Amino acid sequence: DQLREGGYRGSSEVIPYGVDTELYRPIDKRDARRACGFREHMLDGFVVGRADRNASRKRYDLSTRYWSEWWKEAGRPDDAWLYYHCALRDLGWDIQQLAKYYGIEERLVLTARDLNPALLVPQHLMPSIYNSWDVHLSTAMGEGWGLVTHESAACGVPQILPRYSALAEVWDGVGHFIDCTGTTATVGGCNTIGGIVDEELTINAISYFDTCRHMWDYHGKLAFDRA
Questions:
Q1: What is d(CA 168, CA 161) in angstroms, rounded to the nearest whole number?
Q2: Under DSSP, is residue 56 helix (H, G, I), strand (E, B) or coil?
Q3: How far apart are CA 158 and CA 147, in angstroms?
Q4: How far is Cα 15 from Cα 104, in angstroms, rounded to an integer?
Q5: Predicted local distance difference test score (pLDDT) of residue 116
C-alpha cells in the first residue's frame, strides 16, 4: 500500500514473516538459565534481555546507559542482570567497554564473548535464551516487524518497547510502551529517521517490572497471545 501511494506501479508480492511457536514457547525459567550457563546465585535474579544485532539502529548504547541508571537509582541490587545476545563488536558499539564505562561490567551477562554475526548459535538454544529473561527491552530506533520481539513474546516474555514504527502498531495494547521524545538519523548514508526513547520513561518501565513482579505473568500472557 505504501509503495502504491508513493507512485510505484510495478508488480509486487507479499512474503510472510513469522515465528515457529512450536520451538519458541514458554519453558521453566530456572532450567532456561541453567542451559544458558547462569551461576546458581543468579537463577532467581531480575534479568532484562536483548538479542538484536549490534548495529547503529538498535541503539545498544541507550539500553546500556538507561539500564545502568536504573540499577544505580535502585540501590545497585545484587540480583539484577542485563543480558545481551549479540556480537560484542560489530557495526555498533564496543559492548564490554561501554558496560565498563557505565560501571555495570559485572552486571552484564553474555551468550558468548566470541559471538559474531558469522557464528551460528544453535537454534534450539534460542528459546532458553529468551526464557531466561524476565522482560525484553528494546531501545531500537525503529522496526519493520521485530523478530526478537515476536520470538521472545512467544516464550511468554513481557515487552518494553518504543512507541514508534511497526512496534507501536503490532504490539498496541500489549507492550509496555516508552514514548520517543526525540529523533535521529542512522549513519552510513541511508538516513533512516528513527525515534529516541525517553531515558526517564525507560528507567520507570524497568523499575515497574522489578517492583511489580506479580504482574509478570499478566504481561507475559498478553505478549504470548499476540505472538
A1: 8
A2: helix
A3: 15
A4: 41
A5: 81
Distance CA(180)–CA(91), nearest Å, equals 23
pLDDT of residue 77 exceeding 80, the answer is: yes
**What are 109's strand-pairing partners?**
83
Whether the full predicted model's pTM is greater than 0.85, yes or no, is yes
DSSP 8-class letter at 24: S
Cell of 141: 530506533
**Residue 40 has which C-alpha cell?**
546458581
Residue 117 — pLDDT band, cuts 50, 70, 90? confident
Secondary element (H or E) of residue 53: none
The residue among 111, 133, 122, 120 whose CA lies nearest residue 27 is 133
- The stretch 198-213 carries a mean pLDDT of 98
Mode of pairing for the β-strands spanning 180-185 and 193-197: antiparallel
R_g (Cα) of the chain, nearest Å: 17
- Quickly tell me which residue has 560489530 as its cell: 90
How would you classify residue 139: left for phi > 0, otherwise alpha for psi between -120 and 50, otherwise beta? alpha
CA dihedral 18, 141, 92, 187 (to 10 degrees): 120
CA 112, 113, 116, 119 dihedral sign is negative
